[in-house]
UniProtKB/TrEMBL annotation:
The keyword Cell cycle does not apply. Residues 36-164 form the Alcohol dehydrogenase-like N-terminal domain. The keyword Lyase does not apply. This is Alcohol dehydrogenase 1. It is found in: Cytoplasm. Residues 206-337 form the Alcohol dehydrogenase-like C-terminal domain. It comes from Phoenix dactylifera.
Amino acid sequence: MAGTAGQVIKCKAAVAWEAGKPLVIEEVEVAPPQAMEVRVKILYTSLCHTDVYFWEAKGQTPVFPRIFGHEAGGIVESVGEGVTDLAPGDHVLPVFTGECKECAHCKSAESNMCDLLRINTDRGVMINDGKTRFSINGKPIYHFVGTSTFSEYTVIHVGCLAKINPMAPLDKVCVLSCGISTGFGATVNVAKPLKGSTVAIFGLGAVGLAAAEGARVSGASRIIGVDLNASRFEEAKKFGCTEFLNPMDYKKPVQEVIAEMTNGGVDRSVECTGNIKAMISAFECVHDGWGVAVLVGVPHKDAEFKTHPMNLLNERTLKGTFFGNYKPRSDLPSVVEKYMNKELEVEKFITHSVPFSEINKAFEYMLKGEGLRCIIRMED
Ligand code: NAD
Ligand code: ZN
């Protein structure tokens, strides 16, 4: 691998030329990593709904041409100046938000919102020089959330890479680099349900089901899954959901249905839909006095959260989280160890797998609401 260090690599990448148009596999040039950057050979990547929102660019800022992808696993090919804690051959998981280890957030035990490297969905360039590392015949191709994993090689800031156990199978643990850790962490690190409590999960995609799994391992006695797609309900039983609600089956708001089912509201709720109505319902369905709601879904850029202030005065708490409050470099390696120790299952989240050449199929599955995670294999 050292043979390519310091040189431009030509490789295949799936380029999104325009919003909503199928990705095109192109030969791209990937520049060597600059100071504090790392070039990574991606082996497996998967599709998360956040990629789809920014590719559709209906409710988000369009930045094109762009290479999407942020849930992945790979191996370090070469490192830039100043990188001391990663070396060629290390196994890594890229993360859409980073950890510089030096700012006030990184030093706080409560935050993972790093000042330098926190998620920025509208920036398509590297922070070092404000330029891209991808190009086609000299024309820049933009990055996505600092990861751009739909490419055989990509350049990532060292602060957005978690070094993991090299024994961990990358075709499985790649899903821990976003969705599963996000949902699981949203419950266990942020909502923190007590044993025997009642939890509502809005949105039963991979993120929501990981949140349900977090409620199950926390000892919740009732886990109410809410989704508009009833085909998710059967699957959700495997993740601990005990009851299901489709808001479309009721004339009244789903928060009222939940309040009736639970004698005043659930103890905790976790929203994993990205839909503003679901976010408001997720807040209003928690019990007064102690209920906590956690927002995880990425909203439309113009969305506004509206509720009566009395809902808060009545001692309900509203929170939000990125990446389940895990610090990417410090905490993600131990989430991978949970998988290695069989304390956390990831196989049940992986419902499809396609070769890189068929990456557009992964988008079709997600748009149809079919399955949970589709692994994209870069090497065959
Ligand atoms: P997904 O598409 O697989 O699942 C979303 C589910 O929500 C679907 O089953 C859909 O039917 C359901 N849904 C949509 N609108 C609904 C509504 N009004 N009421 C009830 N259910 C509804 O997506 P995913 O990959 O699991 O991601 C879920 C959300 O989490 C997305 O918004 C994604 O952008 C976001 N996300 C956030 C973070 C973070 O760090 N905060 C990280 C990853 C993903
Ligand atoms: Zn920081």
